[in-house]
Amino acid sequence: MQKSKPFAVLAAAALLALTLQACGGNDNNEGSASSGAPAPSSAGSSASASPSAAAPSGENVTLKVWGDLGNQAVLEEPFKKINAAFEQKYPNIKLTYDFAQNDQSLNVALQANELPDLFWVQGDKTSKMGEMVKNGFLLDLTSYNMDLSRNADPEKAYCTVDGKLYCSLPSFFDTNVVYYNKDLFDKNGLSVPANWDEFVQGLDKLKAAGVTPIALAGKSEWDRAWPIFAFAPAFANAALQKAQAGEGKLTDPTVAETLQAFRDFADKGYFGKDFLAQDMAGAQFAFTNGKAAAIIDGTWNNATYVASGVNLGRFPVPNKEGKRVVQSSYSNFMTYAISSKSEHPAEAVKYLEFLSSQEAQQIMEDSTGLVPTIKDITPKDEGVKELAVFDEAGLNIYSVLTALSTPESNAADIMMKDVIPKLMTGAITGEEGAAILDKAAKYPGQ
After folding, report:
1. Three-state DSSP state, 164
2. What is the pTM of this model?
3. Which of 18, 43, 176, 335 is 20 to 30 Å from the Cα of 261, by its Cα?
4. Looking at the domain 20-173+330-381, which fold is it?
């Protein structure tokens, strides 16, 4: 097994791999490839402010802000503190902050052309923000001269469409890891696996002892996909890179191996008996109450497992050679955009500036224990450092498939809605799943 990288080099490792960003969130939080929404009546392209418009009026204003409904349990505490600190700094600006946004409510607001002043976006993780820009829904922030000096170029690229800035910049790193119950591992003579074979052998041992090896939310479209998100960079990172560049295809054997590993886990009972009917709350409860020894989930839920009181450990999925290649993604917990129809754009920009500040980011870190990508954010505890121990930050399969999608054939949606359910139920093999994705993909140069 390769030597672990120290926490201090996390940002560099992540940034090298962040040509694509991936998901981080719960069900219905991901934007679809096309919103299907009409363009605002007032504009055919995104609004842009002149430098003279950048100064707030000083009058008392109220901004309507939508928070991430799917992650309310994690975000309610930090945003209560962030918003209080913002209002203290800008006493003339009041926030009406509601956890009202998921994919459905956002699309309804787009259809009705009734967006709040501010709402969260996923940057370049999906095509959603670009579609909103194209249809004139978002305020162009370029002329407001926001301070971007603390951020690296990939973080700026996350918020940029056609060279223009559209959201507050990310400052945290998301990936998927195996959260495990140290007490159950110790009881069954297990330690952190050095390679894939040790990982599988440990799951066999747990199953033989009557313990569900891995809790899985088979009922939840996004949460049931986390194992594949974790397996794909470990098994098939090179193949995904080649497919994205048009130098290879998704029929590469390592892609099929990734999908087959997921089916094998279901077939062998590693996810338990009733995982197909289990939602994420049920899967998390099975893990935290000791019925399951592990759960594969995102770093964004680290605080949830810490708060449960379980004797918690974390490790990335190792490949056959023992190398730990993790999916790379920027967190969208603090990346917000402004509606082009906001009546208070300058004040809304102040909120984005505050979200991009070290003060607000440290509040988020202290509450959630996310993995920082900016050096002046102090990690919450040693557990955060444990999340950052990996050998390489790789691509995310969802983002690769999004890049290979067209309006007529969305390969990413096909994986989530067709391939994964069929793998879980044994309806297709990994090789057949890879062929389905290959057929749906449009490679560069085609």
Report:
1. strand
2. 0.73
3. 18
4. D-Maltodextrin-Binding Protein; domain 2 (3.40.190)
